[in-house]
């Protein structure tokens, strides 16, 4: 017995932020020195490495729970279910609701509780809670929902991933250019056939890797030093991901009944185009198998890195037929994988 996805939804904010948006920014390094490169060179290098040409930001009147609600409503409608039948609402995010123009994160009540309230669900035994697990949070929500369904604790779950990273970036840090806003959601229920989640894996590397992603002060020493922003050690994250993520993906696939040649798609967290390409290339090298064409859909060039929202949003786009080059058909086998703050890694194999 396992669980399967019966409905998908996403919300892609309409405010498009191109790389030209950063033309007037003043960028500093971690020592507080102004970068010597001009901004055109900085953004050009960013585009070559990450593949990002533009990203989406939420409107000023929206917060993370608003984005999650819209994705959830679409997933519920797509599933054709009564929301009162949901046993769990699991909301993955990292920074809560941060209102535009403010610096304070609001997580009480939980974002899942806010979505349940806005969905007007009266069922008190529909349990709503949040997950803070870095970028892999949505996959972790799927793994937990699957466990609830397999154990008989739940019959139907809503799993949301949403984030407004544009509200927690240091405008003087060039890494701020990769981040974006968005939301995705799915509804899962018990699978009566052999479709659904086939295997899964999660890991937290904290002994040496805990602070590869962290909250830190602005690189501009004249800024308010009491205000913290999302920061990362890009080089260490890149090296960690290339070493650990392919191994985790292989371990997860090996736990399933499928072989490397059975995979139809790999949907990986849209963090960095070059990094994701290298991860998937190394994954296939572990099987001494050539990388097949068109195996990994990517939308980071247009949508940027919206953390927990990248995977469920991309999945919804594919299943809704919005990506001409990529389709998922019945009986297709898809490997999902993510890496992020913690440092956390997870994956699951799914048969459609």
Global outline: globular
Percent strand equals 25-35%
Largest sheet: 5 strands, mixed
- Write the element-wise H/E pattern from the N-terminal end onward: EEHEHEHEHEEEEEHEHHHEE
Provide a count of the helices.
Answer: 8
Segments where pLDDT lies below 50 for 5+ residues? none
**Rounded radius of gyration (Å):** 20 Å
Helical content stands at 25-40%
- Overall pLDDT, averaged? 94
Q: How many angstroms separate the termini?
A: 15 Å
Tell me what you see in this structure:
α2 (64-79) crosses α3 (111-118) and α5 (234-255) packs across α6 (273-285). It is globular and about 60 Å long. Helix content is 28%, strand content 25%. α3 links the parallel β4 (88-92) and β5. With 352 residues, it is of the alpha/beta class. It has helices at 39-50, 64-79, 111-118, 137-151, 234-255, 273-285, 300-303, 310-319, and strands at residues 2-11, 15-18, 54-57, 88-92, 127-131, 156-164, 181-191, 196-204, 213-217, 228-232, 263-268, 333-340, 344-351.
Topology:
Layout lengths: L1 E10 L3 E4 L20 H12 L3 E4 L6 H16 L8 E5 L18 H8 L8 E5 L5 H15 L4 E9 L16 E11 L4 E9 L8 E5 L10 E5 L1 H22 L7 E6 L4 H13 L14 H4 L6 H10 L13 E8 L3 E8 L1
Parallel strand pairs: 4-5, 4-6, 11-12
Antiparallel strand pairs: 1-7, 2-3, 6-7, 8-13, 9-10, 12-13
Helix pairs in contact: 2-3, 5-6
């Amino acid at each position: 017995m396992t669980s399967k996805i019966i409905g998908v939804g996403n919300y892609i904010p309409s405010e498009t932020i191109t790389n030209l948006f950063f033309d007037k920014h003043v960028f500093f390094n971690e020592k507080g020195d102004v970068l010597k490169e001009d901004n055109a060179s900085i953004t050009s290098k960013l585009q070559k490495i990450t593949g990002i040409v533009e990203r989406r930001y939420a409107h000023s009147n929206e917060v993370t729970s608003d984005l999650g609600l819209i994705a959830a409503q679409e997933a519920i409608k797509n599933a054709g279910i009564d929301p009162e039948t949901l046993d769990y609402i699991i909301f993955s995010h990292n920074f809560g609701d941060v209102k535009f123009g403010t610096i304070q994160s609001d997580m009480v009540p939980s974002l899942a509780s806010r979505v349940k309230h806005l969905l007007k669900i009266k069922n008190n035994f529909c349990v709503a809670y949040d997950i803070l697990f870095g970028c892999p949070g949505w996959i972790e929500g799927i793994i937990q929902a699957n466990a609830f369904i397999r154990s008989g604790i739940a019959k139907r779950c809503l799993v949301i991933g949403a984030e407004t990273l544009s509200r927690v970036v240091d405008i003087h840090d060039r890494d701020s250019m990769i981040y974006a806003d968005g939301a995705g959601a799915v509804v899962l229920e018990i699978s009566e056939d052999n479709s659904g989640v086939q295997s899964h894996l999660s890991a937290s590397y904290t002994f040496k890797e805990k602070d590869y992603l962290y909250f830190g002060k602005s690189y501009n020493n004249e800024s308010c030093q009491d205000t913290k922003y999302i920061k990362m050690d890009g080089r260490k994250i890149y090296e960690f991901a290339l070493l650990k993520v392919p191994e985790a993906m292989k371990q997860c696939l090996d736990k399933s009944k499928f072989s490397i040649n059975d995979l139809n798609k790999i949907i990986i967290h849209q963090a960095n185009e070059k990094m994701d390409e290298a991860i998937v290339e190394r994954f296939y090298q572990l099987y001494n198998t050539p990388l097949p064409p068109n195996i990994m859909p990517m939308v980071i060039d247009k949508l940027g890195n919206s953390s927990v929202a990248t995977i469920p949003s991309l999945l919804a786009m594919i299943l809704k037929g919005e990506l001409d080059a990529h389709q998922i058909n019945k009986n297709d086998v898809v490997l999902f994988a993510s890496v992020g703050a913690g440092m956390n890694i997870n994956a699951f194999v799914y048969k459609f």
